[in-house]
Design brief:
Elements lengths: L1 H29 L3 E4 L9 H4 L2 H15 L5 E4 L6 E5 L2 E5 L10 E4 L6 H10 L12 E5 L4 E7 L4 H10 L5 E7 L7 H9 L4 H11 L12 H10 L7 E4 L4 E3 L4 H9 L2
Amino acid sequence: MKFKLTNVWRARHCRQIAMAGLLMATASVFAVPAVQAQPASAAPASTSQKADTAKLERIRTAVGKAFDVDVTKVQATDYANLYEVQLGNNIVYTNENAEFVLAGNLVDAKTRRDITTERVEEISKVDFSTLPLEQAVKLVKGNGARKMAVFEDPNCGYCKKLHQELKALDNVTVYTFLFPILAPDSVTKATNVWCAKDQATVWTDWMNKGTVPAEATCETPIEKNLELGRKLAVQGTPAIFFESGNRVNGYVPAARLNQELDRK
């Protein structure tokens, strides 16, 4: 039953990721790289507080039904009749009647600030202390003082590439949330890793050397990890979280990892 539920979750999650990705990709195909906008007033009030709750819920429902996506939140912007629609950690825009969806970066015409990028960075932050690290494989290098958490699939090529970069890091603790979403045998491999006596060694040997984990069975946190990933809007692997609250989606080189690990 657990595997069946995992497959159902994976199918729905992937469909929603694809739709959210399609909305975001629209900007690069049909639109200019950024949209410049003038605030509704020189010193706009907090429009999100003034927005009518029923209107926001109506917009949320309309966009969700039109594109078959889970809309995380809708809020008014500081620009006339333009509303921010959050799709996980992605942002698109619409009007009060949800007559269109605009994917692309919103840039303030006066300040030249990239409003969209700022908002995405803001909503993507995660309080590292709230992560259930007991559900993760723990790898300590050096004194382990710096910390990062990574959602990884055993069959993820970019995750394996990331592990090559991890070799260059020192004084870091890496928490790996096994997140099997890419292939039918991902769950089996993740289970074998979690149930191994030396999880960290078995995991790194598989990711770095291709040493297949020995078959093992036990209770695992895999279903909990999948649910955690959904809540954190993890849309692929690797997804990296740092103590600073920052996150990085995808493979990055060791230099960038060190930069983020040192960030306060």
